[in-house]
């Protein structure tokens, strides 16, 4: 655990970009506040590791099962044409995946998603509605 890490410390560090949806067996799930891609989430490992290879086989399988579970929820709720997966972490060395629903009528269809396009913010009520729907679909 690293208290300088947003995913370990949570609170204000993660509040700057995400809203916690809940926890799955191997991960914490957040709604990404910038919602240009409706339903965009982050799945962060419960372990403060940088790489998939830093996890045991069992922990890695559990983490990837969580990523799949969140992806299934995104597909069911928002019906994207594709979900893009990004696991960068160059500056924040805590294993996490961005799950970015892509829609064929969107500005980034056919290309790599921008980390934070700063195009779409929602009202507190809209965020709460998205969080509630994803939480329910995940059984949280």
Descriptive report:
Helices cover 33% and strands 21% of the residues. The protein has 140 residues and is α+β, with helices and mostly antiparallel strands. It has a single domain, classed as HIT family, subunit A, CATH 3.30.428. A hairpin with a 2-residue loop joins β1 and β2. α3 packs across α4. It is globular, with a radius of gyration of 14 Å.
Brief rundown of the structure:
The chain has 140 residues and is α+β, with helices and mostly antiparallel strands. The protein has helices spanning 6-9, 11-15, 57-78, 124-138, and strands at residues 18-24, 27-32, 41-45, 82-86, 96-102. The chain is globular and about 40 Å long.
Would you report the number of β strands? 5
Structural class determined from secondary elements: alpha+beta
Approximate helicity band = 25-40%
What gap, in angstroms, lies between the N and C termini? 24 Å
Form type: globular
- What characterizes the major β-sheet? 5 strands, antiparallel
Radius of gyration: 14 Å
The CATH superfamily is: HIT-like
State the domain count.
Answer: 1
- Fraction in beta strands: 15-25%
**CATH class designation:** Alpha Beta
Tell me what the CATH architecture is.
Answer: 2-Layer Sandwich
| Strand arrangement in the largest pleated sheet | 1-2-3-5-4
Look at the structure and give the mean pLDDT: 93
- Low-pLDDT windows of residues: none
